[in-house]
Amino acid sequence: MPEQPQTSRGAATYQRILDAATEEFAQHGIAGARIERIVTAARSNKAQLYAYFGDKEGLFDAIFLGSLERITNVVPIDADDLADWAVRLYDEYLRRPDLIRLATWTRLERRPQGHLVEMHQHYDDRKLRAIAEAQDAGRVRAGDPFDIMAMVIAMSMAWSPVSNVYAASSQEPDEVHDQRRALLRDCVQSATAAGRSHASPS
């Protein structure tokens, strides 16, 4: 765990390092990020960075896990309205595209298979329980709650920075985003509606 600073001046330096490192890692990945650029942008030095975070890997961990906490807290799941959850995730990707890039680098450089983080249960359990409860109440279609969660998140990322088709930008006209939100909402509602039958094997 990072060593938290004890003074307001130290806290300001700590935050500048986090901000500079977030931009650096999002742009260059883990291997490509350079500590020299980070401390220069943060108006700090290597000694402070290493005292707070240990090393470059520790710094990335602090940033990436913090980004997961942010998305969990800023965009909490509503299993009774998964379509609205997907739309709110879409909006968060517009506000913070760097968070999606951090996840992409993690997938490319650290965990090409399986869960994105080792402590995935910390981030997934509440979502999975909420989906399972909605299923039990007949509000969400049957199926593995994890697969339903993964599908809804993937749909929300259709225009995100990791899209192979088109990456949206907050600079685009509001009506364009409204059209995408409406389409996303309709598609998620259709895909997760209770009572949908499973496809029969051919």
Q: Helical proportion?
A: 55-70%
The radius of gyration is 19 Å
Catalogue the unreliable spans. Answer: none
Average pLDDT, rounded to a whole number, is: 92
Descriptive terms for the model:
202 residues; Tetracycline Repressor, domain 2; 2 domains; 9 helices; 66% helix; elongated
Description:
The chain is an all-alpha fold and about 200 residues long. The model has no long low-confidence stretch (mean pLDDT about 90). Helix content is about 65%, strand content about 0%. The relative contact order is 0.11. It has 2 domains: about 1-65, Tetracycline Repressor, domain 2; about 75-195, Orthogonal Bundle (Tetracycline Repressor, domain 2). It has 9 helices and no strands. Helix 5 (about 80-95) crosses helix 6.
Layout: helices, strands, pairs:
Layout (H helix, E strand, L loop, with lengths): L7 H25 L2 H7 L4 H8 L2 H19 L7 H14 L1 H13 L10 H17 L8 H12 L17 H19 L10
